[in-house]
Design brief:
It is a single chain. The protein has 61 residues and is an all-alpha fold. The relative contact order is 0.22. The chain has a domain at 15-56. It has three helices and no strands. This is Phage shock protein C, PspC. The chain crosses the membrane at residues 32-57.
Length: 61
């Protein structure tokens, strides 16, 4: 399965929804894990990673 941003399961850009679909996880769980990891790393790297994935991951058809 190709890694794409979700067009239907998105809150901002569909990055976490697309990652959740790719990994086979519930999107809500992945969002919670992502936010916790971002906060534990002082949030800045998590925000940069999200923005990079937003521009690098294609949106699903």
């Amino acid at each position: 399965m190709k890694l794409t941003r979700s067009g239907s399961d998105k809150m901002i850009a569909g990055v976490c929804g697309g990652l959740a679909q790719h990994l086979g996880w519930p999107a809500g769980r992945l969002r919670v894990v992502y936010v916790l990891l971002s906060l534990l790393s002082v949030a800045f790297p998590g925000i940069l990673l999200y923005l990079a994935l937003w521009f690098l991951m294609p949106e699903e058809d």
